[in-house]
Amino acid sequence: MTSTTRTIQVETLTRVEGEGGLTVRLRDGLVEGVQLRIYEPPRLFEALLRGRPLEEAPDITARICGICPVAYQMSAVHALEAALGVTVSPEIRRLRRLLYCGEWIESHALHIHLLHAPDFFGCDSGIELARKFPDEVNRGLRLKKHGNQLLEVLGGRAIHPINVAVGGFYRAPSADALTRLIPDFEWGLEASQAVARWVASLPLPDFRQNYEFVALTHPDEYPFNEGRVGSSRGLDIPVTEYEQHFDERQVAHSTALHSVRLPEGVSYHVGPLARFALNRERLTSTARRVADEVDLPTRCQNPFQSIVVRAIELIHAYEEALEILRTYRPLRPARMAYSYRAGSGCAATEAPRGLLFHRYAIDDVGHITSAKIVPPTSQNQGQMEADLREYVPRVLHLDDTAAARSCETVLRNYDPCISCSTHFLKLTIER
């Protein structure tokens, strides 16, 4: 009997950050292989950091991503402060959470309205969606602008902020500068609730997976930049033990490494669904109320529900930001003093796309001797391919073009940041 083969291919993924493609190979109607092909050139940030003064790390790591620079900055400064033995003041800690709120707002608003929502209406772009839903898209653009404005005031500029420092901030914002943001953020808190109700009404595909969710957990707050690493299958460890339970591995079809859970070597899921599953009760009161109103289950096993969870997190970010904006008093000092010492430190924060791990070693004159960065998209790559293996049989009745478009929608559930993930490549030279 002659075997039949079919290949479903996406040369260039759209409405994701970075450069990648997708190949699905079928034999006799069964999925033979799925490859998320990330072909963006490796950017070698870990090597770029070696030998640099530790003070340069926040500005260098911010360049890893234009959408989530704060996550990279916060992970870097927390890890370096752990190496130096620095403890920041409660006021600096609150201001860092405010900065993180700004990043979540601009990132989630962008993803929901311009990248993800078009999928549910058969639109090829956010521009096409805006023709059908001008009020909703304009509302989303205004929300994104709020996040950028907060980053500009607190971080020094909206893209790749420059005010973040080891020990705190180079300059504390004035009370007036933050107070002026309050009316927009009060509008945004109301608008974000309308966004959640809108996306909860979208026609989501009925597709479920048995995920192991992995995220930071915290007893008192929805996690941004501190906590333990937990999972829906019982993992509960300090961040210092992260590398004992997770490992990055190279695959031939990607310039990004794939992370797996040890010892089994299996994929897992990071991001909004994981945070929500492990920390729902730590959301602000309004975010919890709207999640209950739209009947959102705590463990969303349908990856398409991520758009709803992002909207719930958008509410949380606005509500927490408003509380900090209303009570802010200028920091004195804005930055904690420290002395150089040889050592190492690690930290994890929650980027909009999920858990982000950094580890650094420094010498006694304050230079970085080694760096390790594990982005969220690297951690999700294996799970994205696993999702596709289960999803593809549902679209085999479609022609190749329509099937490929449908497969892309699965990947956009994760809001993958491909440029973030292509940070390292192993090279072997034989002469």
Could you walk me through the main structural features you see in this protein, from its secondary elements to its overall organization?
- This protein is of the alpha+beta class and 431 residues long.
- It has a single domain, classed as Orthogonal Bundle (Cytochrome-c3 Hydrogenase, chain B).
- The protein has helices at 45-49, 57-62, 69-84, 90-116, 126-132, 134-155, 175-179, 182-200, 242-245, 272-279, 285-293, 306-327, 376-391, 400-412, 418-421, and strands spanning 5-10, 20-27, 30-38, 164-165, 168-169, 214-217, 228-231, 236-237, 246-249, 258-261, 343-351, 354-362, 368-374.
- The strands form five sheets. A three-stranded antiparallel beta sheet has the order 1-2-3.
- Strand 4 and strand 5 (168-169) form a beta hairpin.
- Helix 3 (69-84) runs antiparallel to helix 4 (90-116) and helix 11 runs antiparallel to helix 12.
- The N and C termini lie far apart (46 Å).
